[in-house]
């Protein structure tokens, strides 16, 4: 029995899975001694346990028992060219030969920023960060500093990282109350909006005069699993301009995927700030 994992009783599908993945099961049981729920990322919640991958190539992954899977996840969406792409691996080897952590400025970061700026309409200036969570956190801080306002508006079910301002209203606490560990004073600085009612968004901006910015997943919550209505993003841009509220597009999921210029390129809507991650570094540490 793996700590924190519940088994289904008399399930032929589950029993077959367990029989075919004994090594993954053993590794999951060991992982339960170290990690909460025996996993290192929420997306890996699988009953009775997830597979443990031994290798991957192209669009396929192989687990520790030799079972092969078609990979529709693609490294959290970061590996558009698949696993172990030959051209990408050659570039990695070339970069490794020069060093791994200079602790100084280098031309690679300038070249990288130039490529991003050419593709993303909103990228007038670029700040590299360590994660998507850090990118959205800093975008909101910048919005508050620029506008002199304190509150951030966001949409229910839209995910923007793990920092305190975004830790509720995604899969729970849809009333805006703070999740355990988040200060109520922090939660009070966030305005939760309904993603399916642009008129209520407009009314909120009419009523609230201390909103610095609104942040959204531009294709809808859960990486587009709850899509926005056609014209929603375009109308939101109009409303934010009317009320001098900054628009932050969280393009961690959509950047360089739905369009070479991200969702902003797809919709023809230029936000004031954008956040990128994962695919920005091709699944490698940025």
Q: What is the CATH first-level class name of the largest domain?
A: Alpha Beta
Unreliable sequence segments? none
Strand order of the largest sheet: 5-4-6-7-8
Helix- and strand-based class?
alpha/beta
For this structure, the CATH topology of the largest domain is: Aspartate Aminotransferase, domain 2
Number of helices: 11
Strand content: 5-15%
Please provide the ordered H/E string of secondary-structure elements. Answer: HHEEEHHHHEHEHEHHEHE
Architecture of the largest domain in CATH?
A: 3-Layer(aba) Sandwich
Helix content: 25-40%
Distance between the termini: 37 Å
**Superfamily at the CATH H level of the largest domain?**
Type I PLP-dependent aspartate aminotransferase-like (Major domain)
Can you tell me the number of structural domains? Answer: 2
Oligomeric form: single chain
Radius of gyration: 21 Å
Sheet with most strands:
5 strands, parallel
**Number of E-state strands:** 8
Average per-residue pLDDT, rounded, comes to 93
CA-based shape = globular
Can you walk through the features of this model?
Strands 5-4-6-7-8 form a five-stranded parallel beta sheet, sandwiched between helices. A three-stranded antiparallel beta sheet has the order 1-2-3, with no helix packed on it. The chain has eleven helices and eight strands. Helix 8 (198-207) packs parallel to helix 10 (232-242). The longest helix is centred in the middle third of the chain and has 16 residues, at 132-147. The protein has helices at residues 12-20, 22-31, 74-77, 86-98, 107-119, 132-147, 184-187, 198-207, 221-224, 232-242, 262-267; strands at residues 53-57, 60-63, 68-70, 151-155, 190-193, 211-216, 246-250, 273-275. The protein has 286 residues and is of the alpha/beta class. The protein folds into two domains: 1-95, Aspartate Aminotransferase, domain 1 (Alpha-Beta Complex), CATH 3.90.1150; 105-281, Aspartate Aminotransferase, domain 2 (3-Layer(aba) Sandwich), CATH 3.40.640.10. The protein is 35% helix and 12% strand.
């Amino acid at each position: 029995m793996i700590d924190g994992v519940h088994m289904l009783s008399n399930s032929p599908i589950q029993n077959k899975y367990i029989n075919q993945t004994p090594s993954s099961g053993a590794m999951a049981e060991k992982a339960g001694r170290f990690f909460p729920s025996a996993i290192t990322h929420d997306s890996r919640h699988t009953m009775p346990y997830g597979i443990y991958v031994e290798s991957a190539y192209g669009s396929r992954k192989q687990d520790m028992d030799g079972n092969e899977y078609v990979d529709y996840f693609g490294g959290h969406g970061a590996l558009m060219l698949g696993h172990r792409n030959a051209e990408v691996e050659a570039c990695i080897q070339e970069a490794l030969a020069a060093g791994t952590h200079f602790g100084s400025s280098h031309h690679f970061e300038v070249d990288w920023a130039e490529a991003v700026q050419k593709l993303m309409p909103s990228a007038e200036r670029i700040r590299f960060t360590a994660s998507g969570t850090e990118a959205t956190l800093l975008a909101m801080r910048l919005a508050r500093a620029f506008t002199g306002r304190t509150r951030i508006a966001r949409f229910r079910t839209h995910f923007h990282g793990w920092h305190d301002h975004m830790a509720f209203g995604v899969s729970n606490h849809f009333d805006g109350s703070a999740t355990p560990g988040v200060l109520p004073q922090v939660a009070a600085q966030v305005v939760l909006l309904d993603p399916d009612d642009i008129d209520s968004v407009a009314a909120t901006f009419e009523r609230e005069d201390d909103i610095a910015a609104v942040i959204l997943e531009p294709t809808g919550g859960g990486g587009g699993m709850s899509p926005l209505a056609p014209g929603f993003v375009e109308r939101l841009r109009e409303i934010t301009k009317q009320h001098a509220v900054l628009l932050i597009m969280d393009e961690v999921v959509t950047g360089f995927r739905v369009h070479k210029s991200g969702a902003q390129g797809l919709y023809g809507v230029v936000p004031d700030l954008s956040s990128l991650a994962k695919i920005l570094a091709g699944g490698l540490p940025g």
